[in-house]
Design goal:
The chain is α/β, with parallel strands linked by helices. Helix content is 37%, strand content 19%. It has twelve helices and nine strands. It comes from Streptomyces cylindrosporus.
Length: 288
């Protein structure tokens, strides 16, 4: 039997459930992360990522976007301070053989923020020609907080005029998953603001870029359907995003999983698969 994402451990003193972070990271890398592959491909095609590209991935997670860029010939650096477990999986993907000197030279993974790259030896490397922040924003209240600071820290390490790519959820009417995410808001503590679902706003990405001192220079929309082998896979994949954490803390994992499965039922196909069409948006901004 496939293990569930959230283990039924006794709650902490504060009442929040304990989460098996390693299982969550594995579910993200094996189930959910691939849903954004069309987004990565569209950006890389548009910006002609390849030999000569030096890319920094902010919030690189388990590294699939970095791996795809490296396969095109790019030298990649990933930074992530939110999940050491996901970063460990990125190391497995991108640095499988520590004896490979070329891999160590072309690929860097740092547990921290862009500001930590200099202390990790990044000051002597050439400036980055591309910065990405592929973790989608515009779905939860407060989900863009902190991103501006990360972008400002990355700017001095990039070439002047280098593209910086931000990603976000598309309009709710074009994202079937929006109806499922409303479960998180309904179950979460109504007094919480940060961590609650909200409709994506048209200028979410532009506002973040402008706060970071970046100049918007084009955007695009990409179809990123969420497709799962079955209901269990869909529940585990969506829970791995962290978008239901507030709901789990306010109720319990069993109730969240049950109601999430009920919300997914309209998207269950006769063959047992789950399919939800979505549109994501990306913004290309430029460093000053």
């Amino acid at each position: 039997m496939t293990p569930t994402l959230v283990r039924r451990h006794p709650p902490h003193a504060g009442g929040s459930p304990r989460v098996d972070l390693c299982a969550r990271a594995r579910d993200w890398s094996e189930i959910q992360e691939r849903m954004l592959v069309p987004l990565y491909e569209a950006v890389y095609e548009r910006l002609e990522v390849g030999q000569g590209t030096r890319m920094m991935g902010i919030g690189c997670g388990s590294g699939l976007a970095l791996l795809m860029a490296a396969a095109r010939g790019a030298a990649v650096t990933g930074v992530d301070h939110s999940s050491p477990e996901r970063l460990a999986l990125a190391r497995e993907r991108l640095l499988p053989d520590a004896s490979d000197a070329r891999a160590r030279a072309d690929t860097r993974l740092v547990d921290g923020s862009p500001a930590d790259l200099t202390s990790a030896g990044g000051a002597e490397t050439p400036a980055y020609t591309l910065v990405t922040a592929f973790e989608p924003i515009g779905c939860l209240a407060g989900d863009s907080e902190g991103l501006g600071g990360l972008l400002r820290a990355a700017t001095p390490l990039a070439e002047r005029g280098a593209p910086v790519v931000l990603a976000g959820w598309g309009p709710p009417e074009r994202c079937a998953t929006s109806s499922v995410l409303r479960v998180a808001t309904r179950l979460a503590d109504p007094l919480r603001s940060a961590g609650s679902w909200r409709p994506a706003l048209r200028d979410d990405l532009e506002e973040v870029a402008q706060r970071a001192g970046l100049k918007p220079d084009g955007s695009g929309r990409v179809a990123c359907p969420f497709g799962y082998a079955g209901m269990d896979s869909a529940v585990r994949g969506l829970l791995s995003t962290g978008l239901f954490d507030a709901a789990i803390a306010a109720t319990d994992a069993t109730q969240v999983e049950k109601e999430l499965a009920e919300a997914l039922h309209p998207y269950l196909r006769t063959d047992g698969t789950v399919w939800m069409p979505n549109v994501f948006r990306y913004l290309i901004a430029r460093t000053p």
